[in-house]
Amino acid sequence: MNGKKFGIGVLVVVTVGLAARPAQAAEKMQYRLKLQKGQKYYLRMITETKTSYTLMGRERPMEEVIGFGYDFDVNDIDMNGNAWVTCTFDYISLNYKGPGGIIVYDSTQLFSPVAPAAKRLSLLQGARFQIIITPRGNVKQVTGLERMFKKLEKNINKRSQEKFMLESLKEQFSEKFIKEIFESHLAIYPETVVGVGDSWRKTAVTLSGLPLIVENILTLKDRKNGIAIIENYSNIKTDPNAKPTVRDGTKTSYRLEGKQNGMMEVEESTGLIRDSSLNLEMIGELRVETESDETTVKLIPMKIQNVVTFQMTERKKEADQEKEVVE
């Protein structure tokens, strides 16, 4: 009799366990970025890029790994969930190998010499700006860049190359660039509630650097222990209407297309993107048009492979860290 009761009990446990997972999978969830006032977060972005050009039948490869780490401090939250955030450059790294040699820079190596080619990025260490970000991960506003660069200008040698480096940084780290960088990682949340198996689309257009049109298809693949597993599949191409870059009478433009795919883990209670990895591959050509007595056009085959990783975590408050040290 006892044996029969035990067998029935096991059957009930197994049956409940099997029923729980389909029930969770069928449940619809609304995913949003739910930042908290006073909370301190840390964002880490690493981009690994392999680019190759084919010139005169010979492949010319180039490899670059660039990393940024930001302190991401939430100053305030309005009634709609929009967050006022201060972003501080806490970590910068560059590892380059290609035409021009090898460049290695890591901001954590405080006493290592900084290569001249990396000096430009090193100026940003400790600099800060502010953004307003919505629960859907869109950046509504970027402020503080002008103040940031004025402060940097006070700390440089205006008679050295640092002045020209700073001007270059101003051109690159514009409001548009900051908005595109943060939204490329954070603007992934669906408009409506979704369940396992549901997909939604997000289109991104980048105007800084390569002018790209990115058609993202995101799919909620699974839910495990409060973590949403989301797949990202993208069709990517250069904007055919983008204007070429003109410098010293030479126009350059790109015609590239390809795919991107990867996975991300999103914490359901907060919307924090705990881990994300995307792999991209594009092929096409670089068009170089030179005008002198007559116009000459060169079409240079090229290929780009890219791996982008992104992580967002809570940062411990200074008081908590000091307490741990004492204990």
**Which residue ranges are poorly predicted, with pLDDT under 50 across at least 5 consecutive positions?**
1-20, 318-327
Secondary structure category: alpha+beta
Second rung of CATH, namely the architecture? Roll
- Strand element count: 13
Oligomer: single chain
- Beta percentage is over 45%
Order of helices and strands: HEEEEHEEHHHEEEEEEEH
Average pLDDT number = 87
CATH class: Mainly Beta
List the helices and strands and how they pair.
Layout: H1 2-26, E1 40-55, E2 58-77, E3 83-98, E4 101-106, H2 119-122, E5 128-133, E6 139-143, H3 145-154, H4 162-172, H5 175-186, E7 199-206, E8 212-224, E9 227-238, E10 245-247, E11 250-267, E12 273-291, E13 295-314, H6 318-326
Antiparallel strand pairs: 1-2, 1-13, 2-3, 3-4, 3-5, 5-6, 7-8, 8-9, 9-11, 10-11, 11-12, 12-13
Name the features.
about 325 residues, alpha+beta, Lipovitellin-phosvitin complex, beta-sheet shell regions, 6 helices, about 20% helix, disordered N terminus, disordered C terminus
What is the compact description of this entry?
With 327 residues, the protein is α+β, with helices and mostly antiparallel strands. The protein has six helices and 13 strands.
